[in-house]
Amino acid sequence: MKKIILVLSLICLASPAMAGKLVLKGSTTVLPIAQKATEAYMALHPDTVITLSGGGSGNGIKAIIDGTATIGNSSRFIKDKEVKQAVDQNAYPVPHRIAIDCIVPIIHKNNPVSDLSKEKLRDIYTGKITNWKDVGGPDMKIVVISRDSSSGTFDAWKELVLDGERVTPAALTQPSNGGLVTQISGTKGAIGYIALGYINTDVKVVSVDGIKGSEQTAKNGRYTISRPLFMFTAGWPEGETLDFINFILSPKGQALVKEAGSITLY
After folding, report:
1. From the centroid of its chain, how far is CA 228?
2. For residue 114, what are the domain limits?
3. How many domains are contained in the chain?
4. What is the pTM of this model?
5. What is the pLDDT of the chain when averaged over all its residues?
6. How far, in Å, CA of 191 to CA of 175, rounded?
7. Contact of 233 with 96, CB cutoff 8 Å
8. Residue 100 to residue 165: CA distance in whole angstroms
9. Cβ neighbours of residue 103 under 8 Å, at least 6 residues apart?
10. CA-CA distance, 191 to 181, in Å (whole number)?
11. Burial of 54 (0-12, 13-18, 19+ CB in 10 A)
12. Measured distance CA(24)–CA(241) in Å, rounded
């Protein structure tokens, strides 16, 4: 019987070494891809049980290091300090690039602003600009919403938009893409940023320097707020883990990446 378990918090502590069992934890950006891949994989391998949870890229990589996951989903590459932690624990995380993603700024759907330069985005997120009238919008306070520090999307935004500067202390934080969309949709002055696959009609996407984030602009390099998505394994994968990674990299798996709203590798 096909069985898929979707866990929204990190509650499964079962050993990932069990035959016929995979444990996936980590990035909420990778989560929609992992959900679709899991469902399709279970249809082909009905005796395999997969436990899937979010919690952020940092938690996914940590789970690989401490042995509580078979696969760690991450929307960023592993950090130097995590490599050291892994080596200290005789763990050797191996990255597998599975997709590409854009990070797009979003605002309330009634906000008339449609484009912001990367410089303006940086000034908003560092607290230098605090009113929409200063970027061509209404006289209204900007409510800055960011992802939390365990998020790979936060790390990519800090690197690609903020040039390493600190986010304003006035910023609100959200632990997930979905939560951020919900908060933006209900807050008129809000601005946030999400993975491409989480765009919906409840929010308005803002272009950056006149370029809209999309599959085409990410692949041709015109949209610069883009990054690869990864699944990490503890050492080179074998058995069921290798089969699952290969499935995601196959034409069928890459079609599921597209269905999930992310960008295929090829």
Report:
1. 10
2. 101-219
3. 2
4. 0.86
5. 92
6. 15
7. yes
8. 24
9. 153, 156, 157, 160, 193, 194, 195, 196, 213, 225, 226, 227
10. 10
11. buried
12. 10
Contacts of 256 (CB under 8 A, 6+ apart): 33, 36, 37, 40, 248
Residues pairing with 193 in the sheet: 105
* Three-state SS at 100: strand
The CATH number linked to 48 is 3.40.190.10
Identify the H or E element spanning 245: helix 239-249
Q: Report, as an integer, the average pLDDT of 163-192.
A: 96
- pLDDT tens digits, one per residue of 87-121: 999 999 999 999 999 999 999 999 999 999 999 99
Helix (DSSP H) and strand (DSSP E) numbers for the chain: 9, 12
Residue 6's H or E segment, with its range, is: strand 4-6
Distance CA 96, CA 74 (A): 10
For residues 151 and 155, what is the distance between their CA atoms, to the nearest angstrom? 7
Give residues with Cβ within 8 angstroms of 264, minimum separation 6: 99, 100, 215, 254, 255, 257, 258
Q: Looking at the structure, do residues 155 and 185 belong to the same domain, yes or no?
A: yes
Using the structure block, give the residue that is written with the tokens 């069921």.
Answer: 240
